[in-house]
Amino acid sequence: MTDLAVETRNLGKRYRASWALQDCSIDVPSGRVCGLVGSNGAGKTTLIRLLAGLSRPTTGHATVGGRPPADDPAFLREIGYLAQDVPLYRRWNAADHLALGAHMNEVWDQSVTVDRLRSLGIPLDRPIEALSGGMRAQVGLALALGKRPRVLLLDEPVAALDPLARRQFLASLAAAVGEGDLTVLLSSHLLADLERVCDHLVLLAGGRPVICSDIDALLASHKLLTAAARDTTAIEHHHHVVTSVRTPRQVTLTVKLDGPMLDPAWVVHDLGLEEIVLAYLEGGSVPTPDHALEVVR
Amino acid sequence: MTWLLWRQHRSQAAVAGAALVLFAVAVLITGVHMAHVYDDAVRNCPSNGACELVGQLFRGYGAIVDTVHLTIAVPLLFGAFVGATLVAREVEQSTNSLVWTQTVTRRRWLLSKVAVAVGAALVWGIAVSALVTWWSGTPNSLYGNRFEGAQFDTQNVVPVACALFGVCLGIAAGCVFRRTLPALAATIAGYAAVRVAVAVYLRPHYLAPITRTVAPGADAGIPPGSWTLNSALVDPPGHVITGRLGIPDPCVSAPTRAGLQDCLTRIGYRMKVTYQPPSHYWTFQWIEAGLFVALAACLLTFAVIRTLRHDA
Question: What ipTM describes this predicted complex?
Answer without folding.
Answer: 0.87
